[in-house]
C-alpha cells in the first residue's frame, strides 16, 4: 500500500480495501443497484424488506477477544452464540479508541476515508454511506442506542430513524435495562438496531451477585460475566428471524488497573514520554517483562491502563460473532479487520453494497490489518501511533516523533514485551503501511469537550 488514504475518499479507498476486493464483490454488482434495487426491498409498495431478517448489532465497549474464551469468566449465553454462529478469533480494530473504531464498524472504512480521526478530530465524511443509510434505503427501520463519546456531532447518527446517545450511567445494570428491552421488542419490522454497551468500560461497576472469583479474576471479568446475561436478554427481546452481530470496538488493559505502583510508574512514564518526547520504550520493556509474572495470566503490560494509548493486541484484538438465519456455525482464525464487519453483516442480510472491507467467510486468507493509537490520553496528536499487523508480526511507527519504528515477532513474543532487530521484516511490513494522508491537526476539532470530560477522557 503506497498511496495516501486520507486526502479524499476516492483517492485513498482503493489502497485500504486490499488487493482482492474486486474479486469478492464480483462483476455483477451493478445489476443489484439502481432500478433492480426494488426487487431487493420486497414486494410491498412502501419498499419494506419484509422477506429479510432483522438485524441486532451489539457493540460492547472495551471488550477483548480473549475474554470470550477465558475459563475464568462465566459467559454461558455468549458461549452458546459462538457455537451456533460464525466466530472470528483474529479480528483487529482500526483504532484503539471508541469513536474512530465504531466509525469503521458502521462504515466499513478506515478513519482516513470515513473522516473520523479520533474522539474529537473529524466527523463522518459526506463521501461514505454508513450502515443505517444503506439499510434505511432498503426499507429497514434503523435505530441506535449509543452512549459514551458517540454523540451526534460525530455524524454517526446519519441515516438512523432514531439515534439516542444516553448518559453513561444508563446501562443494562440500571433501570435503563427495561427501557432498552421494551424498545427492542417494539421495533417495527424489518429493523436494524445498534446497541452500544458501556458496562465494562472504566470505571467498572460489578453487580453485587457477580462480585466473586467464580465470575472472574478482575472487576472487568466479573462485570463481563454479568453482562453476558444482559446480552441474552437483548437477544431474547427481538424476533427469532434476527441476525445477531456481537462485536467489540477495541480492547482494554485490565490486569494492574488499581496497583498504586503502576499508577505512579505510569504517571512518570507519561510525563517523560508524552510531554517530554523521550523514547522510553526500552525501559518500559524491561519493567513490563519483569512484572509479567505477577497477577492473573492475562496478556497485558504493567505500565498500561485502559485503551487508546497503544496498538498492542490486548487493545486491538476484538470479538466478532455472527449468528442467525442463514449463518452456518464456523470459526474463522484468519486475520481479518474491523472494516470487514459491515460487508459481512450486509452479506448475511442479502444486501449488496460496496465498502472498503470484504465479507468474512470460512476459508479466507489473512488480511493486512492497519490500526492506529489516537486516544485522548496520549495528550495530543504528536504521540499518535500507526501500525500494520500481518504474518505474525507487527510494525509500529510514531509519525511526529523522531523514534525508530518498533517491530514485534508475534510468533516468538505474543505478549509484545520486546521489539526485534530485523531489518528485512521491518522493510516488508513498512511497505504494507498506507501513507498517512491528511495531517490530523488539519482536521476539524469537534466542540464536545464537556461530554468527554464527563466521561473521564479529558
Describe the structure.
The protein has 458 residues and is α/β, with parallel strands linked by helices. 29% of the residues lie in helices and 15% in strands. It has 15 helices and 13 strands. The strands form two sheets. Strands 1, 2, 3, 4, 5, 6, 7, 8 and 9 form a nine-stranded mixed sheet that branches. It has a four-stranded antiparallel sheet with strand order 10-11-12-13, covered by helices on one side. A hairpin with a 2-residue loop joins strand 11 and strand 12. The radius of gyration is 21 Å and the shape is globular.
Low-confidence stretches: 1-15, 17-49
Gross morphology is: globular
Distance between the termini: 34 Å
- Over the alpha carbons, how many angstroms does the gyration radius reach? 21 Å
User: What structural class do you assign from the helix and strand content?
Assistant: alpha/beta
Task: Work out the helix count.
Answer: 15
